[in-house]
Structure prediction request, 160 residues.
Amino acid sequence: MPTHFSGSDREVLALNTYIKLTRATESFLTRLYPGGRYHGLTASQFGTLEVLYHLGPLCQGEIGAKLLKSPGNMTLVIDNLEKRSLVRRQRDNDDRRQITVHLTAEGQALMAVVFPQHVADLVAMFSVLTPEEQAVLGDLMKKLGQACESPAAAPQDAPG
Prediction:
C-alpha cells in the first residue's frame, strides 16, 4: 500500500520505503511469534532469554540496550520471566544498585528446546530470499540501524 501523500519524489520514496519496512517487520514478527509458538513467550521475553542463553548473565540495563527496550519494559519482562522461574536476579554485593539477571536451569532447558525451533523458523521465513539477497538485506538494515543511532539522524523539531 503506497502512500497517498503528494510531496516531492524524495518524500514519497521515503514514505513508501517506511511503509514497506514497517509492514514487512510487523508481518514477519506476527508470523514468527504467534500465540504460544514459543511456549507462550512474548518477543521481548524470548529476546531476553536468548541474550542470556548466548551471552550469560548480564545486568538488566545491558539486556535492555541489546534489545532496544526501555528500563521500565525490561523490569516488567524480567518480572514475568522470574515468575515463571526462567530467570533470577542477583544483586551485586559491592554495588547494591547493580542487578545481574541469570538464566535458571528451567530457562536453560526451555531455550535448549525453543531456540532450535526459532532458528528453523527463521531459515524457513528467509527462504523467500536467496542467500545473496539475505546478505544484502542484512547489510542495508545494519547501515540504516547505525545511521539511526547517529545524533544527525534524529528528527528535527517541528517549526513553531
